[in-house]
């Protein structure tokens, strides 16, 4: 497995230069490192911020599971989407409201076929809300299919 966490991971993360705002580091409550977040008040409604994970060393023709923690805290905070580089048109994962402020786990299967997925993009879309944040943390890639809960 590959640890792509922000504070101590080994992965290559890039802010998208063509979006409306950047994701920013935010301190964890427990004090051990940080996660990446977009506060609700940044930008205007429907503005986008994209954070890209570059996957340069994935072996072709094998499958992976991307596991990550996410949080959508606050009313009408917006949307969090995940795109794979070879499927630019539609997100492979999307969440648009949190039931509460708790962290949840997202899982995405990445199948390496004829085309290699060379990046994963976390996209935050600004909602109407003025409080809260969208956060992503503990990003890990494991070889093979996603485990059942």
TrEMBL record:
One of its GO terms (cellular component) is membrane. Residues 2-148 form the MAM domain. SMART domains: MAM. CDD domains: MAM. InterPro entries: ConA-like_dom_sf, MAM_dom, MAM_domain-containing. This is EGFL6 protein. It comes from Cnemophilus loriae. The gene is Egfl6_1.
């Amino acid at each position: 497995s590959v640890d792509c966490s922000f504070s101590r991971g080994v992965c290559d993360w890039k802010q998208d230069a063509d979006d409306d705002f950047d994701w920013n580091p935010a301190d964890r409550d427990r004090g051990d490192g940080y996660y990446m977040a977009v506060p609700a008040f940044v930008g205007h409604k429907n503005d986008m911020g994209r954070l890209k994970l570059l996957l340069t060393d994935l072996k072709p023709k094998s499958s992976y599971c991307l596991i990550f923690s996410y949080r959508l805290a606050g009313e009408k905070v917006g949307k969090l989407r995940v795109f794979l580089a070879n499927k630019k048109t539609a997100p492979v994962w999307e969440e648009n409201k949190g039931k509460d402020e708790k962290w949840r786990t997202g899982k995405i299967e990445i199948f390496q076929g004829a085309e290699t997925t060379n990046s994963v993009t976390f996209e935050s879309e600004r909602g109407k809300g003025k409080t809260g944040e969208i956060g992503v943390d503990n990003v890990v890639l494991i070889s093979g299919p996603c485990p059942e809960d």
